[in-house]
């Protein structure tokens, strides 16, 4: 799941690619950015170090699809995407951040592009091609879905 | 994890290469029988690496791909996956059911279950022959199928590997038809670290997990 954050006051942008909801308690964390519970706080701290302020941050998130949607098992552990989404939203909420736009779940994988300095967030999918999700710089959501 | 990878030298990797060759040869026979034409699977490369960055490293990003994911369990657990570029998958569907889906977003249950069955057969063929060679018990669990850009499919494998410590090794393979070009595809075998240790031990090679 892609998480893009922009603070227009300080003009600081940040982005991470969350793979899993939480770091494993029994394993060393090799890359903090991989997990929602370690990655988001680390990203916020790094942005704050550069002068950003949580009060002004705007966030866009996209991803968390279940790409292997055809299966015989019914129940499966491939639905990690949904849990990633929940964990990311929980972390962002805990930090008091506002999610300006989100495009999560479903069955199509997403490639997220975050352009600075205009804060344009684009999402590419197989079914829709490239679609604009929002502009974090001017607080504007995508007009046409 | 890095220490574990350091133990996998040329001898260990070539042993895995050999086993994979035999296992996938068997899988290719299953697929050939199913398709009624010769399919070769070769293993050009076995690499010990940390899985987790397959999606970022793929050279096939942006290519519409049909993927079948096949977790396996038993003494050696892990994940196998097959990938066919859309055109090759369409050809497979044509051969097997005489029709192909209109596009990557129009897969019906029938088309999906056929592709899953192909995965089942190939995976079982592989596992049976590896199990026979090593005297280890391995069995396939129900596969899942998806159609998306290659990087999206691989991202799921990265997550699966991460979740289950299946981060030991990838066996990259290519498959092609008898004339060398007819059927294009790729197979990945990703055993768990623990499973790989057992596999090597069964061949008389000692590595520590």
Beta-strand fraction estimate of chain B: 25-35%
How many DSSP H or I helices of chain A?
2
In whole angstroms, how far apart are the ends of chain B? 9 Å
Shape of chain B: globular
Largest sheet of chain B: 7 strands, antiparallel
Give, in order, the helices and strands of chain A.
EEHEEHEEEEE
Unreliable spans of chain B are none
Provide structural commentary.
With about 140 residues, chain A is of the alpha+beta class. Chain A contains 2 helices and 9 strands. Chain A has helices at about 35-50, 80-95; strands at about 1-5, 10-15, 60-65, 70, 100-105, 110-115, 120-125, 130-135, 140. Chain B is of the alpha+beta class and about 210 residues long. Chain B has one domain (about 1-200): Chemotaxis protein chec, CATH 3.40.1550. Helices cover about 45% and strands about 25% of the residues of chain B. In chain B, strand 6 and strand 7 (about 185-190) form a beta hairpin. The longest helix of chain B has 26 residues, at about 10-35. Chains A and B meet through strand 4 of A and strand 2, helix 5, strand 5 and helix 6 of B. Strand 4 of chain A pairs antiparallel with strand 5 of chain B, so a sheet runs across the interface.
Descriptive labels:
heterodimer; A: 145 residues; alpha+beta; four-stranded mixed beta sheet; 2 helices; 32% strand; B: 209 residues; Chemotaxis protein chec; seven-stranded antiparallel beta sheet; 7 helices; 7 strands
Quick summary:
Chain A contains two helices and nine strands; from the N terminus they run E-E-H-E-E-H-E-E-E-E-E. Chain A has 145 residues and is an alpha+beta fold.
């Amino acid at each position: 799941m892609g998480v893009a954050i922009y603070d227009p006051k300080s003009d600081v942008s940040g982005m991470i690619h969350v793979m899993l909801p939480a770091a494993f308690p029994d394993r060393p964390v090799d890359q903090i950015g991989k997990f929602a519970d370690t990655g988001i706080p680390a990203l916020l701290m790094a942005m704050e170090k550069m002068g950003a302020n949580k009060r002004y941050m705007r966030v866009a998130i996209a991803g968390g699809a279940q790409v292997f949607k055809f299966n015989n098992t019914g129940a499966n552990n491939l639905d990690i995407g949904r849990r990633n989404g929940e964990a990311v939203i929980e972390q962002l909420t805990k930090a008091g951040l506002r999610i300006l736009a989100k495009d999560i779940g479903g069955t199509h994988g997403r490639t997220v592009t975050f352009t600075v300095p205009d804060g344009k967030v684009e999402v590419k999918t197989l079914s829709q091609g490239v679609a604009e999700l929002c502009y974090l710089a001017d607080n504007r959501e995508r007009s046409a879905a | 994890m890095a220490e574990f990878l350091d133990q996998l030298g040329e001898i260990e990797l070539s042993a895995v290469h050999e086993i994979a060759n035999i296992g996938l040869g068997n899988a290719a026979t299953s697929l050939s029988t199913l398709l009624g034409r010769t399919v070769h699977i070769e293993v050009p490369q076995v690499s010990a690496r940390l899985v987790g960055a397959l999606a970022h490293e793929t050279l096939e990003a942006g290519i519409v791909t049909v993927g079948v994911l096949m977790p396996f369990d038993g003494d050696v657990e892990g994940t196998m996956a097959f990938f066919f570029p859309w055109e090759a998958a369409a050809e497979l569907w044509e051969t097997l059911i005489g029709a192909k889906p209109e596009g990557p977003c129009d897969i019906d249950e029938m088309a999906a279950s056929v592709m899953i069955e192909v995965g089942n057969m190939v995976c079982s063929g592989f596992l049976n022959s590896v199990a026979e060679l090593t005297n280890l018990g391995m069995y396939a669990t129900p596969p899942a199928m998806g159609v998306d850009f290659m990087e999206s499919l691989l991202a799921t494998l990265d997550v699966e590997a991460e979740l289950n410590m299946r981060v030991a090794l990838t066996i990259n393979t290519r498959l092609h038809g008898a004339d060398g070009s007819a059927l294009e595809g790729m197979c990945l075998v990703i055993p768990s670290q623990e499973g790989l240790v057992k596999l090597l031990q069964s061949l008389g090679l000692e590595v520590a997990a």
